[in-house]
Amino acid sequence: MTTIVSLPRLVVLLQFLVMLSGCSAGGTTFTSEVDSDAETLSSRVRVQDGVSRFECRASSSGRCYYTLYSHACNGKADCRLAPLRHFAVARGDSRQIAGLSDFRPCVSARNVRVGADCQPAASVAR
Fold first, then answer.
1. Which helix (H) or strand (E) holds 95?
2. Is pTM beyond 0.85 here?
3. How far apart are CA 21 and CA 39, in angstroms?
4. pLDDT tens across 110-124, in order?
5. Strand order through the sheet with 85-90
6. Taking 60 as the threshold, does the pLDDT of residue 66 lie above it?
7. Per-residue CA distances from 70 to 57, 63, 87 (Å)
8. Sheet containing strand 28-35, strands side by side
């Protein structure tokens, strides 16, 4: 008996086998490093296969504060879209979030509100 496997099925089968082996096709990594007299921060964000991993390697405050904005904001200070998420990760820890892939991370050692340009948000006059 001869089995014929179509090319699209073969490609899907090979992708599945690669995935099982722990290999992956690409991904995106964001790193943030600050080492000054006022602040120390070392963070790594890895987005791969639909999972985002946030690693707080070092922080003078003991936490890395993440604010995630949509790529649609394109890093513009005047973007009116609300942040997708805001959370903290303790120094030496990491956090994984599945299903989150289209974002731009802003990270700080201080718990301050930041805009889509990752700069502290201006105070609103009352």
1. strand 94-98
2. no
3. 40
4. 999 999 999 987 654
5. 85-90, 63-70, 103-108
6. yes
7. 24, 23, 15
8. 28-35, 40-48, 51-59, 94-98
